[in-house]
Amino acid sequence: MRSLETVELTKAFGGNLVLDKTTVSFQHGKVNALIGPNGSGKTTFFNCVTGLIRPDSGRISYAGADITRRSPHAIARAGLGRTFQLCRVFPRMTVLDNVLAATRPRGVNLLRGAGGRKETDRARGWLTKLGIEHLAHAEARNLSWGQQKLLELAGVLMSEPETVLLDEPAGGVNPALLDRIGALVRDLNAEGRTFVIVEHNMDLVMSISDHIVVFDRGRPIAEGPPSLIRTDERVLGAYLGA
Ligand SMILES: Nc1ncnc2c1ncn2[C@@H]1O[C@H](COP(=O)(O)OP(=O)(O)OP(=O)(O)O)[C@@H](O)[C@H]1O
């Protein structure tokens, strides 16, 4: 079953054609990875899919619905949640307040109306699941980079997304936390969540993914299970610059 798909998605910045008629689909209920060399368009792809930037042409659909021109909010409501490469948390707010604020529109009164008993319990539940409940009252800026990534993910999960897009979850994270992130993804997937993960750490990608799509210069050049991708000549060529 198809979850997220694009048809001839195209985006250029000035003369730089970053997504070049990209037609790709990710599998519902699976852990999908999107990999490719630096600058191959992975984050731009996420930005188009989540409505942060407008593609020049092409179509994006999610669970059968056309979401191409929808706002980031509408796309989140449709069930797509995402994290960012450079982690988005409020550094001077507590961990718990960050999670509560994550479900509010950005701007004024981030916490107004948040923090009712039920919401707070749910927020704590996610913090527990992600192993950072003991930090609930710490300011986010005092967390390690990896813990901040878990915090950002907790905020995303508050919206109960059906599909989670993770942008470099392992970037800058220490090895102990890396294992935890990998186990968490598998665990959340077993509960029914679909993942699409942009990641450079190949050990992590190969160990947690069911399906891998490889981009090179904004186009998918290979896709399949880890066993196939690992030995694909085109993939090796793209990474080695051949
Ligand atoms: N807002 C923007 N304005 C201009 N150029 C941009 C913008 N966003 C991305 N680019 C360019 O698009 C190209 C692809 O960048 P993108 O971040 O999508 O690649 P990536 O595959 O995610 O790379 P990395 O693995 O290094 O994060 C790069 O050449 C980048 O400079």
From TrEMBL:
This is Branched-chain amino acid transport system ATP-binding protein/branched-chain amino acid transport system permease protein. The keyword Transport applies. One of its GO terms (cellular component) is plasma membrane. Keywords: ATP-binding, Nucleotide-binding, Transport. PANTHER family: CONSERVED COMPONENT OF ABC TRANSPORTER FOR NATURAL AMINO ACIDS, CONSERVED COMPONENT OF ABC TRANSPORTER FOR NATURAL AMINO ACIDS-RELATED. Residues 4-242 form the ABC transporter domain. The keyword ATP-binding applies. InterPro entries: AAA+_ATPase (IPR003593), ABC_AA/LPS_Transport (IPR051120), ABC_transporter-like_ATP-bd (IPR003439), BCA_ABC_TP_C (IPR032823), P-loop_NTPase (IPR027417). Pfam families: ABC_tran, BCA_ABC_TP_C. It comes from the Bacteria. One of its GO terms (molecular function) is ATP hydrolysis activity.
